[in-house]
Amino acid sequence: MRLGPKITLVTVLLLVVNLLLDLWLLWDKIGTRSTPEDSFPAAFLAVGGWTILSTAYAVYFAVRRLTRPLGELSSMAHHLGEGRLEERIHFQTRDEIGELAGTFNQMAASLQSYQDTMEQKVEERTRELKHSQRQLLQATKLASVGELAGGVAHQINNPAGIILMRAGRLAQEVTQRRLSGEAREDVQVIQRQVEKIHSIVSALVKFARQMPTELRPTDLNSVVRRAVALIEELARNRGVKVILDLQELPRVAADGAQLEQVLINLVTNALDAMPAGGILTFATRQGSQVGGQPGVALSVTDTGSGIPAEHLPRLFDPFFTTKEVGKGTGLGLSISYGIVQEHGGTIEVESEPGKGSRFTLCLPALPAS
Fold first, then answer.
1. Gap between the Cα atoms of 263 and 305, Å rounded
2. What burial class does residue 332 get, using C-beta atoms within 10 Å of its C-beta: 0-12 exposed, 13-18 middle, 19+ buried?
3. Which of 290, 304, 282 is nearest to 232 (CA)?
4. Mean pLDDT, rounded, for 235-263
5. What is the dihedral of CA 185, 191, 195, 201, to 10 degrees?
6. pLDDT tens digits, residue range 253-294?
7. How buried is residue 240: exposed, middle or buried, by Cβ count under 10 Å (0-12/13-18/19+)?
8. Residue 358 above 90 pLDDT?
9. H or E segment and range at residue 241
């Protein structure tokens, strides 16, 4: 029953009962002939008093019926304003107050759900912001190293070339004069070390050189197959099995030669991580999101020694390497990172010591023609 008819019905019933009692009192006084005439005022006073009391009770009932639920609604409104969205109104009636309470409960549930969704979105945006900050920091590092490399590479190369030339002459002298094997070995060590300096400087020059990237519609699977053809024999000699898990993909805007360089760098690291052999898997997938648009993903997974967790944040830093001293320059992954960035993509790594590593490249896909 609605609230208005309910209060009206109760009030009318109380008034009817009050009227019946009044009539009964009057009848009791008037109908008895032995009642003195001076008792009539007392009867009327009793009837009037009863009328006032019953009317007051009816008003109290109506007001109480309204103010109690309205007080709970007001209290809940304050709680909602304070952010206590888990609060609920627990009384149930089938009138306007009950409908209003149900509406309040639904509003609180909706606000709580919206708050949970907003918190989740804030966490996601925070993670994306931190990832973007890391990428910006990495790009700044790469730019700084590029400027440094361009300035000093030739200054290092010139004296290194002179040392290598003089070492060659010393090697000829050692051979002609038939000096001891120890002298010959010393000269060979000098030559090897200078050649190592030359290779590091060459990598720096390549790293620093701002070569224009020629983006063309490219089949990523074809890039993978070309890169695998270059390293397949080397992998076989090291006891590494190469697996291709390639799906049909849309084309990407890419410089095929540069992407091959990225893959060769990743494969080189993977082979070094599997000295006793293992499995190297290339997989391509569609459906990744890159910068809010559809993309494709290419993963290179090995079953090697893995990378310690404390090294992962620095893995793409220039000159950082987990290899033994003398093996690698620490520039391969930095160069790869820069190439992928120029393609508008991302490169990420997952690794666990003893269980191998997975490098995943995500590139934006071209719209279907």
1. 19
2. buried
3. 282
4. 91
5. 130
6. 998 888 988 998 899 889 988 999 999 999 999 877 777 788
7. buried
8. yes
9. strand 240-245
pTM for this model (two decimals): 0.48
Nearest to 211 by CA among 108, 56, 342, 123: 342
Rounded to an integer, what distance in angstroms lies between the CA atom of residue 291 and that of residue 363?
A: 9
Per the listing, tokens 């920091």 go with 137
- pLDDT at position 33, please? 45
Residue 92: is it exposed, middle or buried by C-beta count within 10 angstroms (0-12/13-18/19+)?
exposed
Ranges of H-type helices in 3-87: 3-30, 40-81
Do 77 and 103 touch, CB atoms closer than 8 A? no
Give me the amino acid identity at 181.
Answer: G
Instruction: Identify residue 11 by its one-letter amino acid code.
Output: T
212-231 average pLDDT score = 88
* Type of residue at 81: G
Helices (H), the chain: 3-30, 40-81, 96-177, 181-208, 220-237, 256-272, 332-342
Which residue's structure tokens are 């989740």? Answer: 120
C-alpha 60/C-alpha 312 separation (Å) is 74
**Residue type for position 355:** K
Q: What is the pLDDT of residues 95-133, one digit of tens each?
A: 666 677 777 777 777 877 877 788 888 888 877 777 666
Question: Whats the size of the chain, residue-wise?
Answer: 369
Q: In the sheet that 240-245 helps form, which strands lie side by side, from edge to edge?
A: 240-245, 278-290, 293-302, 356-364, 346-352
